[in-house]
């Protein structure tokens, strides 16, 4: 597996930049103490990194720069999304979301509907893979409190028109939440300009950090209820969770090594240029799509245009279950992909791929090359050709 070609960057980017690995190791060796809990020098240094990253990420996401404390860290996007949805929605509230959502949104909402009396509407996407703002508008009711949209699909790579959806929400005083798991660090996001009230992110994808770190960025006029409580390192005599951010939504010892990885990831993205990274990935995607579409028996999804896309592609090969294509890619060609439903069953149901057990996802990253894409094209052609030989034999 030393020659493995990795096309599963939508799950987690790998490898990370060498500078991220090195900074994580060095910082953790030298300053891996509990930040904000003690007054000695190393604790202060660790705390400074945490608070510095809050400011840096708020600026990166176009949030309220005068309120960096509203950048709250968590384990990942799923952890953050649970905090948001459980902290905003109550019995009688209505939430609008989409068929493109990850289970990080679908399951918390379904539990709130079943267990707490929340109402929910899931709107479809169009044939090109985009949620039209009008479908959101048409789903809004008098009791709609929250709209949640997956900014970039982890299945088909389409990037939703969040600025237009955000405007609809802002005009109606509805809280607009985006899941930026696939877009944070990949394409520009400006919460202020896009009318985003809450942005949920994970660190281990486009932000080039480690697993186990993520969080949410909350605009100043949004109030999220505390749903968990515990140690914060401040106001220890208070028997209840503090009402001030970030402690209102953060509990326990933070993932300091994960935070260090995000700091180094920001350095790397700034040095390389986010636009340049994305252009590199999309150039490779364009070649992959064009060549896959020329292979008989291969289906690609929502690829009529690659504008407003991340470098994620869903395919299927006639005559094969997706899982078997994935096995053949790994065993015969040393290529790693993700197969199945990708934790997004509603998307696959609408695409018509549920009955064939999902699809094969190629997700291109910053460290993929044209040679990698060429190998993938050869591999898919080989697999499709095997089936064509079966049909003619």
Keywords:
13 strands, globular, 39% helix, four-stranded antiparallel β-sheet, Aspartate Aminotransferase, domain 2, single chain, 393 residues, alpha/beta, seven-stranded mixed β-sheet, 11 helices, Aspartate Aminotransferase, domain 1
Tell me what the structure shows.
With 393 residues, this protein is of the alpha/beta class. The protein folds into two domains: 5-15 and 273-392, Aspartate Aminotransferase, domain 1, CATH 3.90.1150; 18-271, 3-Layer(aba) Sandwich (Aspartate Aminotransferase, domain 2). Helix content is 39%, strand content 15%. The protein contains eleven helices and 13 strands. It has a seven-stranded mixed beta sheet, sandwiched between helices. Strands 9-10-13-12 form a four-stranded antiparallel beta sheet, with helices on one face. Helix 5 (133-139) packs parallel to helix 6, helix 8 (274-292) packs parallel to helix 11 (370-392) and helix 9 packs across helix 11.
Describe this structure in a few short sentences.
The chain is an alpha/beta fold and about 400 residues long. It is built from eleven helices and 13 strands. The protein folds into two domains: about 130 residues, Aspartate Aminotransferase, domain 1, CATH 3.90.1150; about 250 residues, Type I PLP-dependent aspartate aminotransferase-like (Major domain) (Aspartate Aminotransferase, domain 2, 3-Layer(aba) Sandwich), CATH 3.40.640.
Q: What is the strand content?
A: 5-15%
The name of the CATH superfamily of the largest domain reads Type I PLP-dependent aspartate aminotransferase-like (Major domain)
Question: Tell me, what's the shape?
Answer: globular
Low-confidence stretches: 388-393
Number of domains: 2
How many strand segments?
13
Q: What percent of the residues sit in helical stretches (DSSP H or I)?
A: 25-40%
Which structural category do the helix and sheet elements fall into? Answer: alpha/beta
Termini separation: 33 Å
Number of helices: 11
Radius of gyration: 22 Å
The CATH architecture assignment of the largest domain turns out to be: 3-Layer(aba) Sandwich
Main pleated sheet:
7 strands, mixed
| CATH class category name of the largest domain | Alpha Beta
Mean pLDDT: 95
């Amino acid at each position: 597996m030393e020659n493995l070609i990795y096309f599963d960057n939508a799950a987690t980017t790998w490898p990370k930049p060498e500078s991220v690995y090195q900074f994580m190791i060095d910082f953790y060796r030298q300053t891996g103490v509990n930040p904000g809990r003690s007054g000695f020098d190393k604790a202060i240094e660790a705390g400074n990194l945490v608070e510095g990253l809050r400011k840096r990420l708020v600026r990166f996401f176009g949030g309220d720069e005068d309120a960096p404390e509203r950048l709250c860290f968590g384990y990942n996007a799923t952890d953050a999304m649970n905090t948001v949805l459980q902290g905003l929605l109550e019995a009688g509230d209505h939430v609008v979301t989409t068929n493109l959502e990850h289970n990080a949104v679908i399951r918390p909402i379904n539990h709130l509907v079943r267990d707490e009396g929340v109402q929910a509407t899931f709107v479809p996407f169009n044939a090109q893979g985009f949620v039209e703002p009008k479908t959101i508008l048409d789903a809004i009711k008098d009791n709609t409190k929250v709209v949640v949209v997956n900014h970039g699909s982890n299945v088909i790579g389409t990037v939703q028109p969040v600025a237009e959806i955000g405007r609809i929400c802002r005009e109606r005083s509805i809280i607009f939440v985006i899941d930026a798991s696939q877009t944070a660090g990949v394409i520009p996001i400006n919460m202020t300009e896009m009318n985003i009230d809450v942005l949920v992110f994970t660190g281990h994808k486009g932000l080039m950090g480690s697993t186990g770190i993520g969080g949410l960025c909350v605009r100043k006029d949004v109030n999220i209820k505390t749903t968990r409580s515990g140690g914060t390192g401040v106001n220890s005599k208070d028997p209840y969770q503090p009402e001030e951010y970030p402690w209102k939504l953060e509990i326990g010892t933070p993932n300091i090594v994960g935070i260090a990885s995000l700091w180094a990831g920001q350095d790397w993205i700034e040095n390389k240029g986010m636009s340049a990274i994305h252009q590199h990935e999309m150039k490779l995607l364009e070649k992959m799509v064009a060549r896959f579409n020329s292979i008989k028996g291969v289906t690609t999804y929502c690829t009529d245009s690659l504008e407003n896309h991340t470098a994620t592609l869903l395919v299927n090969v006639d005559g094969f279950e997706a899982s078997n294509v994935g096995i053949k890619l790994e065993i015969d060609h040393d290529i790693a992909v993700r197969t199945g439903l990708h934790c997004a069953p509603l998307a696959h149901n609408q695409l018509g791929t549920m009955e064939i057990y999902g699809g094969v996802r190629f997700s291109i990253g910053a460290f993929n090359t044209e040679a990698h894409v060429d190998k993938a094209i050869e591999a898919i052609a080989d697999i499709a050709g095997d089936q064509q030989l079966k049909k003619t034999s």
